[in-house]
Amino acid sequence: MVKKLLYAALTSCLLLTATPSIAEDDLEDFRSQLTNQWQLVKNDRMRNIKAYARLEDGKRYRSFKVEAVLDTTVESLARVLLDFDNYTRWFWKTRESKLIRQNSSTEYFVYMVHDAPYGLPDRDTVIKGTIEPQSKNKPYLTLKVTAVPDMLPAKPPLVRMVAEEMSIKFTPLPDNQVEMITEGYFDPGGVVPAWAANFVQRNAPYAVLLALQRMTQKDEYLHSKQPLPFPIYNYNELP
């Protein structure tokens, strides 16, 4: 409860003391009428990150897309993404993560628990991650994530997320860089104010990218000699 109260106080302070440019961006986002076409909602030129949003038929909340160029290698990214038990170190508001089943070298099932804003129950999710490795004619690696909410029994008071869908494409570039394009959609389940869900949809993908970039620079991933379960090719190693 103390943690929740501190989180609420911090969130309120951040909202009240936001810089004029950020506040204006948020207000403009609320004013704009999203359509089923991608609209730019954040453009970080310094970090080369662009975020988009759109509304799709049959979905309660908006979808998101993020395009970025990261200063890292595909190999280092793969090592971070396969370290499921350490998602708590970088994935948005994650306080528990663990691998619960592995069907093959490229198919994984992961359980995660996410902190929710004050006044809302925390969420948990079961996701299936499928990796499509690079090949001679396909230099990029893709990761597809799908929620499988019925795989495990519900764990009240946690609310099971009903959708956590992402498609992520990693393309190696020269000079140890990777282009990363992510499209996705979250539905937290239960009763959530639309503004709160949209706030997360807008900010979480951007925050995850920054944290992912930071993790790929850690020695344990950047210089690891542990074998990976499938071949990885950086730009100068493409077959």
CATH architecture of the largest domain: 2-Layer Sandwich
What is the structural class? alpha+beta
CATH superfamily of the largest domain: START domain
β-sheet strand percentage: 25-35%
**Count of alpha/pi helices:** 5
Whole-Å distance between the termini?
Answer: 54 Å
Mean pLDDT: 86
- List unreliable stretches of 5+ residues: 2-31
| Percentage of residues assigned to helices | 25-40%
Main beta-sheet annotation: 10 strands, mixed
How many structural units, i.e. domains? 2
Return the string of H and E elements: HHEEEHEEEEEEEHH
In CATH, what is the class of the largest domain? Alpha Beta
Shape by Cα distribution:
globular
Count of beta strands:
10
The quaternary state of the protein chains shown equals single chain
Radius of gyration: 18 Å
What is the CATH topology assignment of the largest domain? Alpha-D-Glucose-1,6-Bisphosphate, Chain A, domain 4
Description:
Residues 38-221 form the START domain. Residues 1-23 form the signal peptide. One of its GO terms (molecular function) is lipid binding. This is START domain-containing protein. With 239 residues, this protein is an alpha+beta fold. It has two domains: 1-31, no CATH class; 34-237, Alpha-D-Glucose-1,6-Bisphosphate, Chain A, domain 4, CATH 3.30.530. The protein contains five helices and ten strands. Helix 3 packs across helix 4 (194-216). The radius of gyration is 18 Å and the shape is globular.
